[in-house]
């Protein structure tokens, strides 16, 4: 009996290691194809907002890559997507809107989606704000998050390219582990 339990334990550990490595490779593949200005709409996915409307490091890095891209491609409209969590005093979308406007992006180019509370909702609710014929979009998120975001967007019939924001080193290990679990759940459940 004990030997049987040890064998089962070793097999489960082996499966866990293989899953961990495979999911890590999946996450790394999320950073392609890189955005090139060919999509007319960009969606910046929301992330934590600190008290006083201060973007978290993850959200700030998303905004920092979006501004030069939007400046380079002035024809692109941007959806800032993110609602208000129970521990946030403002919506993620309103914080993103303020940041973009303060960094020279015309308010007429910014579309607000401020009801979503998950990546899937970011995309579903943003889709409702796009012209019906829109198929191609650019998604902006942190590098660790793009594979799942692309997978979900493609399940909604989008063609996706991406703009990858670096994940802050201080939270990278934690977020990459958590994202592996979220990606596995998405592959199994579908959202």
From TrEMBL:
The chain crosses the membrane at residues 6-23. InterPro entries: Cell_Envelope_Assoc (IPR051599), DUF218 (IPR003848), Rossmann-like_a/b/a_fold (IPR014729). The keyword Membrane applies. The keyword Nucleus does not apply. Residues 40-167 form the DUF218 domain. Keywords: Membrane, Transmembrane, Transmembrane helix. It comes from the Bacteria. Gene3D superfamilies: HUPs (3.40.50.620). Pfam families: DUF218. PANTHER family: ENVELOPE BIOGENESIS FACTOR ELYC (PTHR30336:SF4), INNER MEMBRANE PROTEIN, PROBABLE PERMEASE (PTHR30336). This is YdcF family protein. It comes from Lysinibacillus capsici.
